Amino acid sequence: MLFLGFWNKKLGILGALGSCVTFVVTVTIIPFIPGGWAASAGGFPAMALPVAFLMKDVALLAASIYLLKQDVVRAAASTKRGLFTEIVQRQGAQ
Question: What are phi and psi of 28, to 5 degrees?
Answer without folding.
Answer: -70, -20
